[in-house]
Amino acid sequence: MSLSTEHAEGYQRRWWILVVLCMSLLVIGLDNTVLNVAIPTLVRVLHASNSQLQWMVDAYVLVFAGLLLTAGSLSDRFGRRTVLSIGLLVFGAGSAASAFAVSAPMLIGTRALMGVGGAMIMPSTLSILTNVFPPEERGKAIGIWAGVSGLGIGVGPLVGGALLDNFWWGSVFLINVPIVIIAVTAGKLIVPNSKDPNVPPIDPVGAVLSIVGLVSLVFSIIEAPTRGWTDPAILAGFTAAVVILSIFTWWEIHSNHPMLNVRFFENPRFTAASLSITLVFFAMFGSMFLMSQYLQFLLGYSPLQAGIRQMPVALVMIIVAPMAGLLVNKLGNKILVCTGMTVAATGLFMLSRTTVGSDYWNMLPSIIVLVIGMALTMTPATESIMGSLPREKAGVGSAMNDTTRQIGGALGVAVLGSIFSSTYASGFGSAISRLPAGIPDQIKSSVGAALAVASRMGGAGQALSRTADSAFITAMDRALVLGALVALTGALVALIWLPNRPEPDAEELAYGRDLHRPPQP
Fold this sequence. Notes:
Elements lengths: L4 H8 L1 H33 L3 H29 L1 H20 L4 H29 L2 H32 L4 H4 L1 H15 L13 H24 L4 H23 L13 H31 L4 H7 L1 H21 L1 H19 L8 H28 L6 H33 L12 H7 L1 H9 L5 H37 L8 H9 L7
Helix pairs in contact: 2-5, 2-6, 2-8, 3-4, 3-5, 3-9, 3-16, 4-5, 4-8, 5-16, 6-12, 6-13, 6-15, 9-10, 9-16, 11-14, 11-15, 11-16, 11-19, 13-14, 13-15, 14-15, 14-19, 16-19, 17-18, 18-19
């Protein structure tokens, strides 16, 4: 197999290409967390209701998750750099529009537009990486990619808090624009526009079924904690998701040009790694959701102060994930994923020992252990997914990896959030039964509301505040124990089904040899 001049040049520039890909990925990581810091400001400036605040977050997630598979498939067909560039431009336009939004509904709409761009960016970055790095370097490159993808989790709150302290609220969105301009320009100059050489026809039926099915699934997961898991609308949403995604699977099996070859799931390396990614993001997003509330409500940190205290997450991720990439070739995928998930479970169990008297420094070792485990898991699991597919299908493979992340993260927030909410509400007992009508329900809705009520009650509010703190800690600890059990389940999945080392196929071996030869005329 001889390589094109464009592909060979891509190999020569592969580390510079990785810089561009990481820059493109960083805007997504930042945006996902920076909005959380701006929520109190949006309430004050745009007069957003709680429902509108939720949809500012959920509109992005729904569109992003729903379009991932379609966007990944389009990148394989029309060129990965092309789709990446379009995605960056759409994301930049959505960011600029969000910065100047004049109402909550307008911001919800512009956030949805950003979701369209994000769905095109994320799978394109990983698929381009897979095509320019040979198999022996892929783990290292994916480790750096995974480290940067986690960097936004820690840096986002810090950047958002600093911007809100010094500029107007729209700056948290406008900061994306210069990054987008640089990434698009650099990408045009150095990133090869790889695509599937045997371009099949577009699969519009598969695209529609995947979008509707995934949106139904993610919407039901997001709304279940608020409406209740047995609410008729939620049950209908889950039923629709199961039916439509089943039809999607049937269609893809029988189509002669499937958008996603579902037979990929017959490969245990692909399936076990996808499930491991889902479970690690379940644990990560669910636990971080609770940690953010703990830092601000119980420890009393401002958004900027809370952001600073989440910086160790970013630092550990950016150090450990590339190290895991270097260890993939030495230790194998099974060992690293099992170890990572077990370490993450240990960190969650340690966090579940938090008490009312704990402070940030008591928790920091547990957080570091948790993030080390996640970083050790993400790199080999992602490498397993991408390494188990033909390079010409890297776009849809990357999209599958990203879809499992989104579904796992949404499930983590929904399930752990639901367990937390029900345990928290029951933690008050009869302590608030004598309060005026409506106040008990308000107190049970969130610890923030309970502390606000307590602050208006003077001396009598101290007992209520202590009760709320205790109920919060008990609920958080119980949810974190479940997160730890989920992480241990992921370790077991990897131990049983994930092959430790792939069998290199002839094409991959030829790919590694040909990259070191001059391109054929």
